[in-house]
Every structure is written in structure tokens, then in C-alpha cells.
Amino acid sequence: MDRGPYESYLKKLTDPQCSKSADNDRFDCHPEPNANPQKCVARGCCWKSASANFDPEASYNVPWCFFPSDYAGYSTDEIVVTSTGYAATLTATGQWQLPYGTRIGLLRFELFMPTVDSIRFKFYDPANKRYEVPISTPEIQKKAFKTNYHIDFTKNPFSVKITRKSTGAVLFDSSPSPLIFTDQFLLISTLLSSSNLYGLGEQKAPLQKGGAWARYSLWARDQSPTFNTNIYGSHPFFLNLEPDGKAHGVFLLNSNAMDVDISPKPAVTFRTIGGILDFFVFLGPSADAVISQYTDVIGKPFMPPYWSLGFHLCRYGYSDTAYVKKIIERNRAIGIPYDVQWTDIDYMDAKFDWTYDPKRYGDLPSVVEDLHEHGQKYIMIIDPGIANTQPGKYAAYDEGVKDGVFIQDSKGNLLIGKVWPGTVTFPDFYHPNATKWWTKQAQDWHTKVSYDGIWIDMNEPSNFVFGSTVGCPGNHLDNPPYVPQISGNGSLADNTVCPSALHYSTSHYNLHNLYGLSETMATASAVTSVIKKRSIIISRSTFPSQGHFGGHWTGDVFSTWEDLHYSIPAMLEFGMYGIPLVGADICGFNHDTTEELCTRWMQLGAFYPFMRNHNTLGAPDQDPAAFSKRAQSIMKAILEVRYTLLPFLYTLMVNSHMTGVPAARPLFFSFPTDVNTFDIDKQFMWGSSLIISPVLTQGAESVEAYLPKGIWYDLYTSQMIGSTGKMIGLPAPLEKIPVHIRGGSILPLQAPAVTTTLSRKNPFGLIAAYDVNGSASGELFWDDGDSLDSYSADKFCHVAFSAAQGTLTSVIMKNGYAPESPLVITEIRVLGVAMKPTHAEVNGQSAKVTYLDHLLELEIADFSADLLSPLRVTWK
Questions:
Q1: CA distances from 412 to 580, 611, 786 (A)
Q2: Which residues are catalytically annotated?
Q3: Which ranges carry the P-type domain (predicted)?
């Protein structure tokens, strides 16, 4: 709009709350489009043009209509000390002028202090029970005796401020904007300690979110990842890096549609349209500790089976089993390491769940049997939409109707939508009968096709018609007074079911963002009861707690160099959300890939925790065997690198299960005081030991990569680089993705094979990379790879390694797993050995010594030792 003519319409022209308000101090009073002075003044707000330039490409700009600092909020007469923290009754103040319904006049505030490093506080209506998110969180019975935070309140207007005791850093401060609470519009803001802000997904966006005006809307939607667009999941969590490198996190436990505004003040505003305001603050102080504390609340990540870390192949467009067998056989023929074959909806009979086409896929059971005979696994897709077109002939529908598990419309009739098989009903996975019904479908299907995991898609839920086949009634849930800035013409019902639809416990308005999680929970329960071993459930739509039950892939990305890059921040964010088993569709899903792009993507994808190559109907094949011999060789080589590193990756994933911390993580997790790492999202790390610097530009044969201060070693050549913390040009011909080992690390390795079934039988090795002090450490977790209780029942081995001053030793921290045959280690490489040794012993026995002077690399070989017994290696 042309704002020039409205310059004379200044609210309270001489009022310093308006006239002297800097751009960055503004909090939006008119978040909908088409603000003007008349509307703004009618809301009791300030209208003033911005001094900053308007950016039409930005998701959000400086608001011209903004709250004065004395805008109507809430006050209290008394803050009461309780056995768990504090409480207060809040009373609405001032004149209510916003067009978002009637303000709730009386609120209850409760603050809990459960641990030394965490806080929970909530605002709710004490007179009327409101919807609260049905995920399990720890019960709080008393407050911590000691805390690392201060809590301060103001009474009028009411605000809460939480700061770190040791530094005074702001962890949460609600004072800069009014607290607003109506039935369908809730708003609260907080100041940040810095602009180094991460999280608030799911979005296609850079890793670092702070420093500029931005808006992220959270409403799950079947939408290919696109800038400034809400896509598959909702994660109202952020991590804020403080000026001294400490970190804290903030989580809003709310599943309703919301906008999250970011301003360069720096500040964050949450604007949600239902539920309550239920916040958790985590003090860290490290980024790892923040994620660990966050997953203490939402659930630690599940423990994946070892085979799930292998390479997976899929595509939409396998027309029949002959096609599938061709793909399997040609990749076997060239020795591609390859663990799991998937099928998309092609296998289904008329696209009905829990069926296969008897003509095109009649021998699917024998194909799966062949995979199992070769030590491979099979996963198929299941969509939530259950066809209703063959009543009396389709068990999934008939039994679901009998059990009453389908979502109803606002009148109590089955809500009918439309997806791949035609008209469908949608399961209500929160219905008390749903998991039992879903488990029966999974069990019956497994007797026909012995699958090893399930891929759940279209579970936002996606719907090809608006709301239902007859539309939506258009009530206050379908058309709330405020709709976040979502795609789909600003309607909550677009491409999904009516918000007014009824679940067993509440409306779809409240449960929409939880739909994918609820299906994951039911599917994980079903598969566990059927297979009785660890499995994986990979879901498109996610919400906090997803990682406790399954993993995620980042959806229908495009075969572009841009999407190759943005797969990295997406992967890193989901690690922060407690979903470490994550990856993008390698080579891209939408459109046609190229050999160069697919080669580079396979190289990057070899370092996704979840590695799957997948593409769309009608696109050319992009499995490794589909390309030239040169590309095949490169892809095979990087897969062999991944399989060599699987013991290390598995150890990282088990650590994620135990602590919550991600396996793949941003550089700033390990280098929190190095400001150069804060916005890096073209590189990432595995744990704290490997840094990966992929080629992300067409035609490039080198990478400008940042290596933080320390000693680094090329993974392939062992070449040492001493960095003071700077950008370094790294050679990266098509055959190479630069990967460097951080000095101070010991990595457990294993000789690769074409499946993890075979590679797990191969001998182990170690790489010990010395730091500047001439020392290194590492660990290995090992179990049978798929038992449900290996961790909980202590049926695992945990080995800790250390090296320094001519000695490498291991300590068996836990010895609860007895493999059928000994785990044998036959090779050790030590990097950064300054003086040439002439003799080495392994457990008192002489071993072969090779020393490469130009690399300062020591190789110890021609020995065999049991890895699950204490190891002592010396050289001199």
C-alpha cells in the first residue's frame, strides 16, 4: 500500500510512546494485511512510518501500527510464593480495543521451579477449562532448593523477567509488549539476550533466524519447502546464544496455529489462536545442555536400529515389482552399500492402505523375502486417509467405523475428504480405540508382507478438497477472528480438514498440528508389538515429542542446488528439536536431477543421520546404478566412507537416545564463543569430532570452509591443518567431499560391506587424532543393533578410548553384550605423532609399525585383539 498519504495520521503525535519509538522497539498491533491509520487508531495503537526501507521480499517488515508501551494488559496486587514457585491472579486493565473477541478478564499465572536450570510458567483462564496439549511432561511436585536464575516481576502492568544469575543475561522478559488473552487470540513477547536465534520451525530458512524482521507461521501443511511458507511441522521452540557463548532455550507448549514474529530489538513475539500460554525455559548453559533439558520435557529420542543408519533407496514411480527388482539387482551388481528398499504408493491396490496390487505387485512378498535373504530391509508408505468407497469389502474402513475411530464433522457425521484413493475418512489417532485398530491393520499386513518399518506421509493431514467434500460450516473455528499468516489464501481449512471437525477429545482446530505426532505414536506402538524389534517410523508432519517415537524426512524438496544447501539447516534444526534421525530426499524429490547435482547430494547425504535417495513420479531414475560409471564409483566410494564410520555414527545416535543431544549439529555447539560459527549453515559437524564441508555450487571444485581454532586432519589423506579460526580453501574435485577430524578425537571404525548385516561382522579399527596437547579420546557403544531393551536392560557394551604420550588404552565402561563371535580390532592409526616410532605393542605383543613422515601418521597393524576386552597399545 502507499503509506505516504497517511503520514498526517499520527496517533498522539507528541506522545513519546509513539513519536520517539525506534523501529526496533515496535511490536505489531495490526498483524493482518492492509493496515491503515484509521484501523490502527481505532485499536488504540500508534501509527508511524518506518525509517527503514520496506522490503517487499521479506516475510515481515517494520510495523507501522504498533502498541504504545502503556497498552491495555494485566495487573496483579500480589505475587504469592508457593511450594513449587510463584502464583498470581491477573486482572485485565485499560480499554480493550482489538477486534479479536472479548478479553478474558481474570487470568491465573503459575511459575514452577523444578530444577536448578529449568523453569515452567503458564497463563490460563481459571474459570473455564481450556485446551492443553496432550503430551506427557514431567510432574512438578516441589521447587528446586537452588537455582541458577533470578525471577523478577512487575505488578502493573504484570510482567515476568528471568535472568541468569551468573551473568544477568535475559532468558525471558515479557515486559516490552502487552500480554493479550482472549478465547482465540493470545499474545506475549520476550526480549532476547542476542540476535543469535535458532529454531522456530518447520521452515525453509537459514539456520540463524535473528538480526532482522521476520515472521514464521506454524500450521502444518502439505507444501513443498518454500521460503516464507508454513510447511509440514510445528516446533515453537528456540535456542538463543548469549553474548558470552552460553545458551538457553524457550519452548511454548501450544499446538494451535500461530505466528512467531522476530524483531532486531532483539525480541520474539508469539501470537497463537487457542489453548493456553505454557512456557518452559532451559538454562543450558551449553547448547547441548539446552537440548538435553528440552528433551527431558518432550521425551528423549528413540534408539534406532543399526540397519536404519545404512543407505535407503526409494522412488515414487515403481510401476511394478519388475521395476523394483531391476533397481535392487543393478545396485547389488555394482556393489553399492545399500540396506533398505522402500516403495511409495505405487504398490497399493487402488491406493488403499494395507493392500498391494495383485497384478503389478503380486510377488511383493517374495521381493521382500529376497531382501531379507540378502541382509536388507523393506519399508513401505502408509497414508492416513482410509478409503470409504468399498464398505463391507475393505477391512481397514469397516473395522474403523465399527470402532468409531474416524474424525467427525461438526454435526457428528464422518468427515469425508479426498486423497489418493478418492474419498476417504481420516483416523483420529487420539481416540482410545485407534491404536488397537491401527495395530490390527499393521499385524494383518505383516502376515502378508514382512515389512521392517513404516513411512507415514500426507499426515498434516493433507486433503485434496477444502475441509471436506462438502466444505466447512464456517463457524468460529473455521473462521477465527485472527488467522496467522499461513499459505492457502489465509484459511485454516485449505488443503486439510475443517478446523471445526471433531476428534474424540477436542476439535481439529486444537489438534491439527499434532496429527502427524499422533499417527507416529500409534504407528510406533503398532510396529513394536508386531515386529518385536527396533524399527523406524519416518513421518512428514511432526510436533515436539516426535523424536521419542520416530524420525523425519524434510519433505518434497526440489532438485536444485539451493535445496541442496537448505537441507543442511533443516537437518540441524530437527536435531535441536530432539529428532536426530533426519535427512532430506537425496538428489531432490521434485523435478529432474543432474548427474553432478546427484553426485554432490549423495556426498552430502552420506552425512545425514537418515540417508535416503528418493524422487517423484515421472522423473528419471536417480539410484546410483542409473548414472555413469564415474558417478557410480564416486557414490560407491562415499557410501563406503559412511559405512566405515557407522560405529561412530551409531555411538552418536545412542548418545542422542541417552542425552537428547543431536548427532549432526551446528559448529557453534562445539565452538560457542567463536562468533564466526554463529551463522554457518553450509557446514556442520558429527558430534564434536567431524566437520563436513560439502560442495553446494554447480561446477565448483573447491570449498571455502571455516575451520575453527585447533588441529584438523583430512579424513581421507590424514593431512594436518593447524587453524587459527579462519576460512580455508579446500580442494574438492567431484570425487571428494571435504571432511576433517578434529584433533583430540578417537573414532571407532569398521571395514565396510554392502549391508550392515555384513559390515557388523567385519574387523574394527581406530583413528586417534592428536590435539595440540598430544592427546585424544573417544568412545564406542555396541549392542546387537535391534533389540528393544538393549539399553534399558544394560545389554550393551560401552568402551572408552584415550591416547597420549605414546599410549592408547581402552576402558570397558559396560560389558553387558556378548556377541556370537569376538569383536576384533586389527588396525589403529594415530595422527599427529611428531616423532617416528620404531616399535609398537598391542597388549604386550609386537605389532607392525608404519610411519608416514610427511603426514606425522603412525599406522599399527598385523595384530588382532578383542575390542570388548581392555586394550593397551604402546609405541616408542
A1: 39, 43, 43
A2: 457, 460
A3: 16-69
